[in-house]
Specification:
With 244 residues, the protein is mainly alpha-helical. The chain has nine helices and no strands.
């Protein structure tokens, strides 16, 4: 008997089984793809975090190599932290042992910062550079190898500026020079450069992580100069006079 227009066509068991398999396969593929995506995401995140941790450790240890202390101990058998202002930095070295030794100290601080940034870039790209610079500065200020008593981070910050953008470095050198001519005090120059760091970086154009690094540098450098700020307020901060 021929089928009418309103009669429904029945589906055979074979067709039902085929539809079930196709739907099940599609569902399985969707679940499988989601699972792979989640696993890839978390494995990628874990690897990135691991690389940043390794970068941070390397940079901190690199920063902990206090050039000022090593040079003063090796060349003069004296701890620079017990001389002059007591700061383990290039300025105090220049005041105590002469401008040439101060410049040698500055070069050493630049070199260890560059090494840390190079390693960070090699391992984790731009984010690695940011992490390396931050932790190298922490190591410089709180060195593991020298009782966590280090410098104020100014030389390290200078090299970080050069690493991030050579134009930023030029701007900060200009700020340093102008302020020094007006005040003759390195502490004032350092504080002004620290304040200008993120502002100049933002004007030049940068990424958010780099800007955060710039703000971190401002805060930590100015904080490390709290004693100088008090002496400036009291009018007892000495002018810079280096030996030649």
């Amino acid at each position: 008997m021929p089928l009418g227009e309103n009669d429904e066509k029945t589906t055979s068991p074979t067709e039902l089984f085929t539809i079930y398999i196709l739907k099940s396969s599609a569902g399985f593929n969707i679940i499988f793809n989601i699972s792979n995506t989640v696993n890839y995401f978390f494995s990628g995140c874990c690897m990135t975090v691991l690389k940043l941790i390794v970068t941070a450790v390397f940079a901190y240890l690199s920063g902990s190599v206090s050039t000022a202390v090593l040079i003063s101990m090796w060349l003069y058998r004296r701890d620079i932290r017990k001389e002059g202002s007591g700061n383990a930095g290039a300025t105090n070295v220049a005041r105590t042992f002469g401008i040439k030794i101060g410049l040698l100290t500055l070069a050493g601080d630049f070199l260890k910062t560059a090494l840390a940034a190079w390693f960070g870039n090699l391992l984790a790209g731009d984010l690695g550079i940011v992490a390396a610079c931050a932790f190298c500065m922490i190591g410089h200020i709180f060195p593991l190898f020298f009782g966590f008593k280090g410098g104020k981070g100014v030389a390290t910050a200078g090299m970080i500026a050069l690493i991030l953008d050579w134009r930023l470095f030029i701007i900060l050198v200009a700020v340093f020079g102008i302020v020094f001519l007006l005040s003759r005090r390195v502490s004032v120059c350092s504080i002004c450069c620290a304040a200008a760091f993120p502002i100049a970086l933002a004007i030049l154009g940068t990424t958010t992580p780099r800007l955060v690094l710039g703000i971190f540098i401002t805060v930590i450098v100015i904080w490390r100069h709290h004693g100088n700020i008090k002496r400036l307020h009291d009018g007892t901060e000495p002018e810079f006079k280096a030996k030649f």
